[in-house]
Design goal:
Elements (H helix, E strand, L loop, with lengths): L16 H12 L6 E5 L7 H16 L3 E5 L3 H4 L5 E6 L2 E7 H6 L3 E6 L2 H8 L3 E3 L2 E5 L2 H10 L4 E6 L2 H9 L2
Parallel strand pairs: 1-2
Antiparallel strand pairs: 3-4, 5-7, 5-8, 6-7
């Protein structure tokens, strides 16, 4: 699972950051813990090693292992966590399911064929990086735009980074 056999005779300081991280995770699992605390576990890892690390985390989670992961790279966590805790200046500003954090405020980013018309139909929204940023129920917003003849090219909800900003007043 950790692909370490070819490195058995090497010292930890002789391994790449990715391999060293695998060794540390494998060592942490020797006693089959139910909980693992990981502080910035993907720091200094290349993209391939990061993906591999998170695949291992997902596989272990399916086996019942819980991970508490501290990270400043929130976009990575979005795809693998079920719950989040935001801490700002030592205070917990949010604790709950990731979907609750992501949907707080129901901020939606839409790329539409006619942003000005979309703004008129919705009576709100601001353009940001080519996207129309609106708050509201996703289904209602989409229905209003489609009924008004505005074609939605793409849409996305708030990211974990954006949710963090909301809960920490950044």
């Amino acid at each position: 699972e950790f692909q370490l056999n070819s490195h058995l005779n090497k010292k930890l300081n002789q391994l790449s950051s990715g391999l060293a991280q695998r060794v540390q995770l494998a060592a942490a699992l020797i006693k089959e813990p139910q909980l693992i605390l990981a502080d910035e576990p993907t720091a200094n890892l290349d993209p391939k090693a990061r993906l591999e690390f998170y695949e291992v985390v997902k596989a272990l989670h399916r086996k019942g292992v819980t991970f508490f992961i501290s990270s400043h790279i929130l976009s990575e966590l979005e795809k693998i966590v079920t719950h989040v805790v935001f801490i700002d200046q030592g205070k917990i500003t949010f604790s709950g399911k990731i979907n609750d954090a992501l949907s707080a405020g129901d901020e939606i980013f839409l790329l539409v064929d006619n942003p000005e018309k979309a703004q008129r139909i919705l009576g709100l929204g601001e353009l940001e990086g080519g996207y129309l940023r609106v708050r509201g129920n996703l289904r209602e917003v989409v229905d209003k735009l489609e009924d008004g003849g505005v074609k939605i090219i793409s849409l996305r909800r708030s990211s974990l980074d954006e949710a963090f900003k909301k809960f920490t007043d950044i």
